Amino acid sequence: MNTYLHNKEYRILTNANLLNAVGNSLFNIVFIVYASTLPFNTLAVSLASITIFIPSLFQPLVGHRADKTKEKLKWNIYSRLIQFLLFSFLAFLILLKPSFLLFSVLLLINVVADCLGFFSSTLQLSFIKELVDEESLRDVMGFQNAMFTLIQLIFQGLGAFLLVQLNYNFSLFAGINAVTFLLAALVIMTSYSLLKPCNDSLKITENTVGQSNSFVEDFKEVTTIFMKNPFLKMIISFAVLINLLTSTSESLLNISLLTKEYLWIGNLPNSIALIGIFISVGLLIGSLWTKDFLRNVSSSSIISLILVNITLIPILLILVKSFILVLISLFTLGYLIGKLNPRVSAFMISEVPQEKLGITSGVFSTLVMAGAPIGQLIFLGTANVFNDTLSWWLYGGIALIFLSISLVSKRKERTAVETL
């Protein structure tokens, strides 16, 4: 927060990024609602849900392109202007008679716009490395994570409310969404002269280092960085395992609530809403409160605590049968993830060369996301073929195995240090 208040250049870039996040958060839920109104609604909703994950597959390539971009400041503006034009076009297309071909074009526009959003945010990593001193990086990334979480929490709900107030006028809503991207571009355009010295400094660095590597060469180099760096190697391994579990927990809880009325707090919609709220609020507080009792606790210990919380969820749900305790565990889980994420982001920005930040961020995001479809296949598949109780026991058993692995890894790490 302190850097945001006192570093004007960083504040400008962050404001633009937050406006981008508003646009993305507003339309994600609305697009699902639009898909549900189509004649082929089951297929449309499924495709819309799957499409949300497609941009993550292109993140290494998009990140590589961001690294190779010479005029980072200009393309920070251009990418957002293109997003504005795409959503303006989308607002027009939605007015046309629904068809599968039209819906496919809308999906493509949404994917391209999301890739451009990642492109612009990745371009800004170099600016952050240039503008923020290393000691403040963890606090800065914690603040950004908290703001993105807060925006997602507020504007997804606001998007649904606003859509109702607009009488389900999807075209008008898409137009409003387009304006958020235009505003993000204008924030940087109006401060171009202030940001130009930093941009010129980045260009000097790029010219000195050189950027002749192909995507494949850079990808291999980044993979080598991950494998040779013990911290990044450990984080990636456990991030995949944790994401395998956490990506499914919310959907699995929703399935359990459908058949277990005794878990409800008030009614089913309220109970479902509380799941996301408790995770998001925990994540928000964990990211913002940077000087808490966990500040000096090692990242490997935080990973173990995350896995303890994940292991507790099926026990509290199936044996204890307390949804309130499940919600407290979800809040704690969000809080701990809010502690870990800024550390990883800050470490990568400080340790990875400026000309490799984009592809490093893209490869890391894609690797972490790899656990999600595996988890959904295992746990949601078990819940649908058999029942949710069996799925939760499987979930808890795998979580316990991952926890054991983390504790053994931590013990080996401690032994190695004592030996030295």
Automatic annotation (TrEMBL):
<dbReference type="GO" id="GO:0005886">
    <property type="term" value="C:plasma membrane"/>
</dbReference>
<feature type="transmembrane region" description="Helical">
    <location>
        <begin position="146"/>
        <end position="166"/>
    </location>
</feature>
<keyword id="KW-0472">Membrane</keyword>
<feature type="transmembrane region" description="Helical">
    <location>
        <begin position="172"/>
        <end position="195"/>
    </location>
</feature>
<keyword id="KW-1003">Cell membrane</keyword>
<dbReference type="GO" id="GO:0022857">
    <property type="term" value="F:transmembrane transporter activity"/>
</dbReference>
<feature type="transmembrane region" description="Helical">
    <location>
        <begin position="230"/>
        <end position="248"/>
    </location>
</feature>
<keyword id="KW-1133">Transmembrane helix</keyword>
<dbReference type="Pfam" id="PF07690">
    <property type="entry name" value="MFS_1"/>
</dbReference>
<feature type="transmembrane region" description="Helical">
    <location>
        <begin position="357"/>
        <end position="380"/>
    </location>
</feature>
<feature type="transmembrane region" description="Helical">
    <location>
        <begin position="78"/>
        <end position="96"/>
    </location>
</feature>
<feature type="transmembrane region" description="Helical">
    <location>
        <begin position="318"/>
        <end position="337"/>
    </location>
</feature>
<dbReference type="InterPro" id="IPR036259">
    <property type="entry name" value="MFS_trans_sf"/>
</dbReference>
<feature type="transmembrane region" description="Helical">
    <location>
        <begin position="268"/>
        <end position="286"/>
    </location>
</feature>
<feature type="transmembrane region" description="Helical">
    <location>
        <begin position="12"/>
        <end position="34"/>
    </location>
</feature>
<feature type="transmembrane region" description="Helical">
    <location>
        <begin position="102"/>
        <end position="125"/>
    </location>
</feature>
<keyword id="KW-0812">Transmembrane</keyword>
<dbReference type="InterPro" id="IPR011701">
    <property type="entry name" value="MFS"/>
</dbReference>
<protein>
    <submittedName>
        <fullName>MFS transporter</fullName>
    </submittedName>
</protein>
<feature type="transmembrane region" description="Helical">
    <location>
        <begin position="40"/>
        <end position="58"/>
    </location>
</feature>
<feature type="transmembrane region" description="Helical">
    <location>
        <begin position="293"/>
        <end position="312"/>
    </location>
</feature>
<feature type="transmembrane region" description="Helical">
    <location>
        <begin position="392"/>
        <end position="409"/>
    </location>
</feature>
